[in-house]
């Protein structure tokens, strides 16, 4: 990379030569055009986002300026010189990048002192990293809870901070992305107090409007490099719909073979042929189940092959994760069933095939997972195995919705008061918060401060706001929105800690009687103590899996905007949702056949969030030929299908959103369907649904009408998480109802212009809700 005139031209040519030599020693002979241009922007002091495909060498775009700065800084009088902070959304990615950086920088001697600093880092190593590390790899959670609150101990590192690398930046969306945006603003504030102004270097393989999203995330102007000059191997992409079985599910609906069983068969076949493969699955339990099924079938072929397949998911202990990562890198493992913990950026060299068990929720995640194969330029195979679900069925029959559409826009809202308030408290605890600081945190901050003072969280003294409590302000919020302290899963006989489960998901995943899978072993939950955050389990071998059922009610708090849709109305505003897990189903393994239902007694949870909802009038019902007997089922079916299709139009997952449908809602006094964000304060998903309502509901109607079933099935209107047991549902009524509703829908532009910027048959419809508010 030849030197050019600019602010970095004063750097010694010798340093650049050393770095380029180290890059070439790692087998990278010639930087591609996008890498060179991004590196030059960074060397000139400009923040930049590199938005090119998987395996396009994005890491080199930021490593050249970063390593150059570290080599130069090693010659500083204090030996510390410039420092770099690397942020990854997962621990696995940070560990993988640390390994790569150490290999790449080996020819540079001790100039680069890279180390991972996260919750798994031994305490005896942490002080060394604070004092001597100049390339610290961590995650936003540790930055929020560990580094920023302890900034005096990091003062030497922060005052020398030259670069902040944000890898896989497209993952910072929704509530999590909004929290990370405020964490980065707190970081910038502290750096400024120490006299530093770091350059931000962002990377993503799948981002729409990357510069806009990067600026919203960091709060600073960001240049974009998006033209990919890297060589690409051929990717063969297959869409796979499992066959129908002879079994029947709820209400006699036909049942397809599960995506889990199909993916396990594919992983088995690929392993037998010696093809290095990863099967991505949406749930931790699914990853364990695919691994178990594949191991059993491989043992029937060759007992030695069974040990070459394993599961990888969150909730494992640190030593288990590291051992699996090493086995995957070494080739000891041929096949892996993994959650999205392995989706992001990890260099799995030599991987030939990817099996994706169920649409992962966004096109961005789909291409990230498919891109794990073929990273060395060779041809690769990706297979999307459809679940028996409206969205998956729609996609395998409408491939243009995947291959002819760009990835979704990154949705995040740093001004969400539920997000901003705890970060203002955390900032005040780090350093007293002045009026000048409020510009950094956004316009909503000024109105929140009096509320925080009234709550006795902050107090104004002279010119600044101070944190008033003895506890840590950073503990006010969990930036991943997981709702409190994780629940520990403990084996009763031995007292051994098996892992953890997010607090919000615990009532639906480790309730009493739940089947819990860990490292290929099956356990039954004997008790769940939510107060002490402990679930006690014992090893067992039940011939079934479990699925929780819940009930949901909803009330309108405030209507921000209301738009006529013919006689009906489309609305957007604030709601309060009350959700309670009430029972669980036992389903036979492989076939999914329902064996029975067991009641549960768990406390309700309330959620204040944002929602989109639509109403219909008596005249519209008459035109749609909807009588009172089928009204509840028609609304319910339309609700389920619309939730299933929303991930095509908003950067969300079905499990991030919920819905309720009611024939006569007490707040609207009309038949109403609600779709809401499953996060406090909202996550932008319902707002996006409001903006694209005509297109979204048109696709919903088409998905129901085109399904080959007679009365409704999981491929169109049945939901896997319906608290009402998918009863009642009326397929044809839903189609007629949506047809009449859409006749009065305005053009989408009109809806967007007027939008703000920023059980059926029973008034308390349990319907479809996220795992927990």
Automatic annotation (TrEMBL):
Domain Helicase ATP-binding: 39-225
Taxonomy, superkingdom: Bacteria
Entry coiled-coil feature ranges: none
Keyword ATP-binding: yes
GO BP, sorted A to Z: interstrand cross-link repair; nucleotide-excision repair
SUPFAM superfamilies for the chain: P-loop containing nucleoside triphosphate hydrolases
Pro residues composition-biased segments: 757-773
One GO MF term: 3'-5' DNA helicase activity
Stated name of the protein: DEAD/DEAH box helicase domain-containing protein
Species this chain originates from: Streptomyces paradoxus
Region (Disordered): 742-773
Pfam family, one: Helicase_C
Every Helicase C-terminal domain range: 266-418
Keyword Ligase on entry: no
Key words of the record: ATP-binding, Helicase, Hydrolase, Nucleotide-binding
InterPro entries attached to this UniProt entry: DEAD/DEAH_box_helicase_dom (IPR011545), Helicase_ATP-bd (IPR014001), Helicase_C-like (IPR001650), Helicase_put_actinobac (IPR022307), HRQ1_WHD (IPR055227), MZB (IPR018973), P-loop_NTPase (IPR027417)
């Amino acid at each position: 990379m030849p030197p050019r005139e600019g602010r970095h031209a004063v750097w010694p040519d010798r340093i650049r030569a050393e770095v380029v030599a180290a890059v070439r020693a790692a087998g990278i002979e010639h930087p591609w055009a996008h890498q060179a241009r991004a590196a030059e922007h960074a060397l000139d002091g400009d923040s930049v986002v590199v938005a090119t495909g998987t395996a396009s060498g994005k890491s080199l775009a930021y490593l050249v300026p970063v390593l150059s700065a570290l080599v130069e800084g090693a010659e500083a009088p204090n030996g510390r010189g410039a420092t770099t902070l690397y942020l990854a959304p997962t621990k696995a990615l940070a560990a993988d990048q640390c390994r790569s950086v150490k290999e790449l920088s080996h020819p540079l001697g001790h100039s680069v002192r890279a180390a991972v600093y996260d919750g798994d880092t031994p305490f005896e190593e942490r002080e060394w990293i604070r004092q001597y590390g100049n390339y610290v790899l961590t995650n936003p959670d540790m930055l929020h809870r560990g580094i920023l609150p302890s900034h005096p101990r990091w003062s030497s590192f922060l005052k020398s901070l030259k670069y902040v690398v944000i890898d896989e930046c497209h993952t910072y969306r929704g509530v999590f992305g909004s929290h990370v945006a405020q964490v980065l603003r707190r970081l910038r504030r502290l750096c400024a107090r120490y006299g530093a102004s770091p350059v931000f270097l962002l990377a993503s393989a799948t981002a729409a409007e990357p510069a806009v999203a990067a600026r919203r995330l960091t709060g600073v102007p960001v240049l974009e490099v998006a033209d990919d000059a890297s060589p690409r191997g051929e990717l063969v992409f297959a869409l796979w719909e499992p066959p129908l079985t002879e079994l029947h599910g709820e209400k006699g609906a036909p049942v397809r073979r599960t995506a889990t069983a199909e993916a396990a068969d594919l992983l088995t076949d690929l392993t037998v042929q010696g093809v290095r493969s990863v099967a991505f699955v949406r749930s931790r339990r699914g990853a364990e189940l695919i691994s178990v099924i594949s191991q059993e079938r491989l043992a029937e072929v060759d007992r030695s092959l069974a040990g070459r397949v394993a599961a990888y998911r969150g909730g494992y202990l640190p030593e288990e994760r590291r051992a699996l990562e090493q086995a995957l890198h070494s080739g000891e493992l041929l096949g892996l069933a993994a959650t999205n913990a392995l989706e992001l950026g990890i260099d799995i060299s030599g991987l030939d095939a990817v099996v994706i068990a169920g649409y992962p929720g966004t096109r961005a995640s789909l291409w990230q997972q498919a891109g794990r194969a073929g990273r060395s330029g060779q041809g690769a195979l990706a297979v999307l195995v459809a679940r028996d679900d409206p969205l998956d069925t729609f996609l395998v029959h409408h491939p243009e919705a995947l291959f002819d559409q760009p990835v979704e826009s990154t949705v995040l809202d740093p001004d969400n008061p539920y997000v901003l308030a705890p970060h203002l408290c955390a900032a005040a605890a780090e350093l007293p918060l002045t009026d000048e600081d409020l510009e950094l945190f956004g316009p909503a901050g000024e109105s929140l401060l009096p509320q925080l003072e009234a709550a006795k969280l902050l107090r104004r003294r002279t010119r600044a706001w101070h944190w008033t409590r003895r506890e840590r302000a950073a503990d006010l919020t969990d930036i991943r929105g997981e709702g409190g302290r994780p629940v520990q899963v403990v084996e009763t006989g031995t007292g051994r800690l098996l892992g953890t489960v997010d607090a919000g998901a615990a009532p639906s995943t480790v309730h009493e009687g739940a089947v819990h899978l860990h490292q290929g072993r099956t356990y039954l939950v004997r008790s769940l103590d939510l107060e002490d955050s402990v679930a006690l389990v014992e090893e067992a071998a039940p011939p079934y899996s479990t699925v929780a059922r819940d009930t949901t009610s909803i009330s309108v708090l405030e209507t921000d905007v209301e738009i006529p849709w013919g006689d009906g109305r489309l609305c957007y505003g604030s709601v309060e949702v009350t959700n309670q897990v009430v029972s669980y189903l036992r389903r036979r393994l492989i076939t999914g056949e329902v064996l029975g239902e067991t009641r549960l007694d768990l406390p309700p949870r309330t959620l204040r969030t944002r929602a989109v909802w639509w109403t219909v009038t008596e005249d519209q019902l008459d035109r749609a030929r909807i009588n009172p007997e089928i009204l509840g089922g028609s609304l319910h079916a339309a609700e389920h299908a619309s939730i299933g299709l929303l991930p095509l139009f908003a950067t969300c997952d079905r499990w991030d959103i919920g819905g309720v449908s009611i024939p006569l809602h007490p707040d609207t006094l009309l038949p109403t369907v609600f779709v809401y964000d499953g996060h406090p304060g909202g996550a932008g998903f319902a707002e996006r649904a409001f903006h694209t309502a005509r297109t979204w509901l048109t696709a919903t109607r088409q998905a129901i009408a085109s399904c080959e079933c007679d009365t409704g099935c999981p491929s169109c209107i049945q939901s896997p998480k319906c608290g009402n047991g998918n009863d009642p549902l009326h397929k044809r009524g839903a189609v007629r109802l949506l047809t009449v509703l859409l006749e009065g829908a305005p053009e989408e532009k009109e809806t967007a212009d007027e939008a703000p910027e920023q059980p059926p048959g029973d008034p308390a419809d349990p319907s479809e809700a996220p795992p927990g508010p």
